Amino acid sequence: MISKTEHMYAPFVISSIADEDEVGKKVETDLLIQEFLNQHLKLSTYGEGLTGIAFVYIVTPPIDVIHQDEIIYRAKKKELYIEMRLSYEKVVAASDAEVLQMMAQKYLQTFQDKSLWKKLKGFDCKGFSRDVQRLFEEQEWLKVVELV
Predict the structure, then answer these.
(1) DSSP code at position 12
(2) pTM over the 0.70 mark
(3) 54 and 13 Cβ atoms separated by less than 8 Å
(4) Which of 1, 6, 85, 90 falls 20 to 30 Å from 148 in CA-CA distance?
(5) In this structure, what DSSP letter does residue 32 have?
(6) pLDDT tens-place string over residues 94-130
(7) Vertex 110: Cα angle to 9 and 72 (nearest 5)
């Protein structure tokens, strides 16, 4: 995560925590999602409540208890920090295209969760989710892939 004194270098920052080279290579597409979001969306379109979103995919074996799902909103900086786990076993078994779809689905599902909406004041989560879904569908990143 980014320290409390730093600011994000882009509105959308996406990375991953992954074990092993094979799994790490599969989730390198996080940069593709980051570049795509930064090219096609402006956070200011959805209000003044957010200036940056950092999203980290956790793809480590289940025995890893250090990295857990977490959502932190820093109201003063208007930045949202999210860490979400993808099934390690499913990522290992999936093709690169399926992993990209899993990542896109997890990103969208996180923003469709209404409990997150309550935390973010001055940000249109519903509109943001709708636009992310539309963009991901246009890229065919939301084909049905079972996440659980």
Answers:
(1) E
(2) yes
(3) yes
(4) 1
(5) H
(6) 999 999 999 999 999 999 998 888 888 899 999 999 9
(7) 55
